[in-house]
């Protein structure tokens, strides 16, 4: 069976990863768990300070699974594992189970999703799985979905990435599985504020919004569907108009 790296952005002791790892190991995969020591939610693909310096780690064993925590980010965990820091590099990467949803174009900032995209940077296929609750009660549902997605992606082209959101409900109560487009974020907005000592800061405000656009991850997840969205990382737009325009401006 393939070697699977399991990581997350909630920390190596988070209940999501502790539910996911044994479920994937039970399917027969060679499981490697490497995740941040602490909560690194919202760090995106950051991995600064990883190269040419020692990385502090901690190790725990639970239910036969070894969990390695690193002083770093999810993208950093993937990078270290792919470089062979913890034995043979993984064949596949599974990121999650994230506490809370990861929907819409704002997944750009998600450490959970960024870990999967970091894997794809070197051609490793990956799945990011999130559970739609800040206080989840059905980790096994998401773990089951993750295992099935992993089995599918193993046979897909190298570098394939899926981001999956799972309703927090029993498996038999799911409405089904649907492909979903990424919604535009209308749930929250960032607003400038002032700290206790007059320092600038940003706070998150919930915003009222119109009904979700049908077919988006926001709408389908609210209807009880597991949402599946294939994604890609940064890639060029094949358009030389900007370079041509700049060249002309420089030669006027």
Secondary structure elements and pairings:
Layout: E1 3-7, H1 15-25, E2 30-36, E3 57-62, E4 65-70, H2 74-82, E5 92-99, H3 111-120, E6 125-132, H4 139-153, E7 161-167, E8 176-179, E9 188-194, E10 200-206, H5 217-222, E11 225-231, H6 241-250
Parallel strand pairs: 1-2, 1-5, 2-4, 5-6, 6-7, 8-11
Antiparallel strand pairs: 3-4, 7-11, 9-10
Helix pairs in contact: 1-4, 2-3
Description:
The protein has one domain (3-182, 211-235): Survival protein SurE-like phosphatase/nucleotidase (Stationary-phase Survival Protein Sure Homolog, Chain: A, 3-Layer(aba) Sandwich). The longest helix has 15 residues, at 139-153. The chain has six helices and eleven strands. It has 252 residues and is an alpha/beta fold.
Keywords:
252 residues; alpha/beta; Stationary-phase Survival Protein Sure Homolog, Chain: A; nine-stranded mixed β-sheet; two-stranded antiparallel ribbon; 6 helices; 11 strands; globular; 5'-nucleotidase; SurE-like_sf; 5'-nucleotidase activity
Q: How many E-type strands? A: 11
Q: Provide the succession of SSEs.
A: EHEEEHEHEHEEEEHEH
State the distance separating the first and last CA atoms: 62 Å
Average pLDDT confidence is 93
Count of distinct structural domains: 1
- Specify Rg, calculated over alpha carbons: 19 Å
Question: What is the compact description of this entry?
Answer:
The chain has 252 residues and is α/β, with parallel strands linked by helices.
């Amino acid at each position: 069976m393939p070697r699977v790296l399991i990581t997350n952005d909630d920390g190596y002791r988070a209940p999501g990863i502790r539910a996911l790892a044994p479920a994937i190991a039970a399917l027969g995969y060679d499981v490697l768990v490497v995740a941040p020591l602490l909560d690194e939610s919202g760090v995106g693909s950051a991995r600064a300070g990883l190269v040419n310096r020692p990385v502090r780690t901690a190790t725990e064993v639970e239910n036969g699974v070894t969990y390695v925590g690193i002083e770093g980010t999810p993208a950093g965990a993937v990078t270290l594992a792919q470089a062979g820091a913890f034995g043979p590099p993984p064949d596949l990467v599974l990121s999650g189970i994230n506490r809370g949803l990861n929907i819409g174009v704002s997944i750009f900032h998600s450490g959970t999703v960024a870990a999967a995209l970091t894997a794809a940077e070197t051609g490793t296929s990956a799945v990011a799985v999130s559970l739609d609750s800040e206080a989840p009660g059905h980790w096994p549902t998401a773990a089951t979905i993750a295992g099935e997605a992993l089995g599918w992606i193993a046979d897909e082209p190298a570098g394939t990435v899926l981001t999956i959101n799972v309703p927090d409900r029993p498996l038999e109560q799911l409405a089904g599985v649907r492909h979903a487009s990424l919604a535009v974020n209308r749930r929250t907005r960032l607003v400038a504020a002032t700290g206790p000592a007059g320092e600038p800061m940003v706070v998150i405000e919930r915003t009222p919004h119109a009904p979700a656009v049908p077919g988006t991850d926001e709408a389908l997840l609210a209807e009880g569907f597991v949402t599946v969205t294939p994604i890609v990382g940064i890639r060029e737009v094949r358009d030389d108009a900007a370079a041509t325009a700049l060249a002309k401006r420089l030669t006027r």
